[in-house]
Amino acid sequence: MTKTENEALAEALAVEHGSVFAYGVVAAFASPERATLVLEGLAAHRSRRDFTTSVLQEAGVEPPVAAAGYAMPFPVTDPIAAAQLAAQIEVDAAIAWRGVVEHAEIAEVRRMGLAAMNDAATREAHWRIALGEDPATRAFPGQPA
Predict the structure, then answer these.
(1) How many whole angstroms separate alpha carbon 53 and alpha carbon 90?
(2) How far is CA 93 from CA 42, 60, 65, 77, in A?
(3) Lower CB count within 10 Å: N or C terminus of the chain?
(4) Quick one: how far is CA 78 from the chain centroid?
(5) CB under 8 Å to 30, separation ≥6 — which residues?
(6) Which residues, at least 6 apart from 3, have a Cβ–Cβ distance to it below 8 Å?
(7) 64: closest CA among 106, 110, 10, 27?
(8) What residue spans define the domains of the chain?
(9) CA distance 127 to 33
(10) What is the CB neighbour count within 10 angstroms for residue 79?
(11) 3-130 — its CATH code?
């Protein structure tokens, strides 16, 4: 892999670390009816984090480690804010993985980025549906607002 690909993967990994942490906050405040959605999101980000770590290690790159804590973009004190945070987590993940796609020179890395971006966009849509938003999807997932 190229240096640019490694840097993009490292940036995506850093976002995945934050996503795992933030889903813990979501879990603390989410409505019980959303427990499955929370657990699926958390599991997906843990899996993506672990896989990306191993890809970087196999490439001889020292992967970034998780921070001790992360600031949330807004206060989360109830189920609505928890669902909004979950949707934002997925927006941020899609943006990070779009960066991987944009910098990928190897097809395998591009496929990895596309799959991660698509998964994040799908989870974002599920959260937006839970919030009653219409439309629940973005025209161009991964594109910063």
Answers:
(1) 19
(2) 12, 24, 17, 22
(3) C
(4) 21
(5) 37, 38, 79, 82, 83, 86
(6) none
(7) 10
(8) 3-130
(9) 12
(10) 17
(11) 1.20.1260.10
Q: What is the pLDDT of residue 34?
A: 97
Stretch (H or E) spanning 12: helix 3-29
pLDDT of residue 42: 98
Amino acid at residue number 74: F
∠ CA 30-33-38, nearest 5°, is 50
Q: Residue 141 burial (CB < 10 Å; 0-12/13-18/19+)?
A: buried
140, pLDDT greater than 90: no
Place of tokens 């944009």: 102
What backbone torsions phi and psi does residue 16 show, to the nearest 5 degrees?
A: -65, -40
> For residues 121 and 80, what is the distance between their CA atoms, to the nearest angstrom?
19
Amino acid 143: pLDDT: 84
Pairwise CA distance, residues 12 & 48, whole Å: 10
Dihedral (Cα; 142, 129, 50, 95), 10-degree rounding: 10
